[in-house]
Task: structure prediction
Amino acid sequence: MICFTKSLLIAITVLTVWLQLSQAYCVYNHLDGADSYFYVKEHDIHARFSFKKQINNGQKECCAWDNGDCSPYSTREGPVHFHITFGLFGASLEGATTFDAYCSAGGGLVLSGNSLTNITATCNHYHNTADSTIISPI
Ligand SMILES: *[C@@H]1O[C@H](CO)[C@@H](O)[C@H](O)[C@H]1NC(C)=O
Result:
């Protein structure tokens, strides 16, 4: 009985992780600098509802692709458009330049770099393709 309960708990955990992975996009902070962070917002959704998060170094935040607060289209392939401001090496976000970055709603967006001139956004799409671009100010 204990063994069955344990198996059930493991099954539920695996299922939960799988559901999170398969039903969400995630945005990852892989910037240089332990104190490098950014603020990200889904730009094409009303500001009152949209996905908006501060993401610290080495962290990620996820949002369900079929949730209208996360993505304007309820498909994994649907485009998501982010506005991102960077606090590189602990810099303040106040007055910071806003950058555009794009991915897809079933994908994962990884931000890396160590200067506002070379921040790279890599979007790993749901179907195992990836785009990598140095992002530009809006
Ligand atoms: C990014 O830009 C900074 C400042 O110009 C430079 O020191 C650094 O080497 C660059 N990094 C890459 C990966 O190009």
